[in-house]
């Protein structure tokens, strides 16, 4: 899976997690939605770990560094080269 594909999938799953979170705020007893939310969070975390292992950290506050500060090595999320367009694409 390429960098842009991973980023798109992470973005989609994170958006879905926020949406489910908002739904669960008003429907806290919906076990099916809770299970789906938990699965989406796990899936997003797996993809985030895969991305960071291959391409470097996505967030400075979620990324551990051992020998040196690696956050500065890649384009930052607000840099134009980091972003992509989702127009017309469905992934899930």
- Estimated radius of gyration: 15 Å
Beginning-to-end CA distance, first to last residue: 15 Å
What is the overall silhouette? elongated
Biggest beta sheet attributes: none
Mean pLDDT: 81
Low-pLDDT runs: none
Number of helices: 2
The secondary-structure element order is: HH
Query: Percent helix among the residues?
Result: 40-55%
Strand content: under 5%
Describe this structure in words.
This protein has 92 residues and is mainly α. The protein has two helices and no strands. The protein has helices at 3-26, 31-55. It is elongated. It starts with a helix and ends in a 37-residue tail after the last helix. The mean pLDDT is 81.
Helices and strands in order:
Blueprint: H1 3-26, H2 31-55
Helix pairs in contact: 1-2
